[in-house]
Fold Tagatose-6-phosphate kinase.
Amino acid sequence: MSILAITLNPAIDVVYEIENYQQGESNRVDRAFYSPGGKGNNAARSAKKNTDVPVIAMGFAGGGRGTWLEEKLQEEGIQPHFIQTGSETRQCIAVASGNETTEILEGNFSVTAIEETRFIRELKNVIAAHQVSVCTISGSFPQGVTLSFLQDVMTVLKDSGVRVMLDTSDLRLLELLTYEPEWIKPNEDEIKKFAAHLGKEADSVLETARLLLDKGAKNIIVSLGKQGMLAVNQTEAFQVIPPHVETASSVGAGDATVAGILTAAEKGLDLEGAVKRAAAFGAAAVTEYRAGVVDPLKVSECENQIERMPLKTEGSKQ
């Protein structure tokens, strides 16, 4: 059995640590970190540090940056299976100063129909060869990626019995809910955007989550920042609250929560156990400057301090 992380739009993540960053001024970098990025790759790296099962990374990668990205993932024990593209992999920069982080994200990475076809072929091979049991599709989608391609990816995963996490703000997520993903993980802003696109008005995050359950998702896990996570399915609804920790950088914290869910699923934990583990991963992640760095000891420490708060509507759609 293995964990698969799909990052269709990966990046080289650069973190500049600057003690006293001044907007509009020349700033000297105190420390710089470079890592293979993109939400799925961050989740893969967090998972690898906290599980004994193989972790595989897939996506599109191009140029010298793409080659570097694959090499670095391999150095961290992750098995890369990226489709080479004619477009250069992006670079994304985060400036960390005090408790604040400013992100600068490159765009314009694109893929072709031929590259999409190669991806589907490789996906089938990877699932068969590595007995993939759980998978996340994380992050934004490159230019040129079609809805039919995304549907083909979901079809392959579903037909293979792979439990799928969708973690993207792309509105095409709504078209993929008919494939009954095991989990989706929006934040508050994203879940409101999804509801607005559906033409629905909801008075609460919980009510909005119910709308997405009705569309086919099995479990909705909403990131609430420092307030933890809200989990909803057809039978229960609850919130978990992580302990207070000193924040170094919030970059990649959401991706760490995805890793928490995937590793929990691999261990056979139920929804409550998975969400508590996810919240612990997120809390441990923000104590690090580099995305994807999640110390198992910190996870264990945080997990023991997670609080569960049942919601008034638990066990009911009322």
Q: What stands out?
A: The chain has a mean pLDDT of 90.
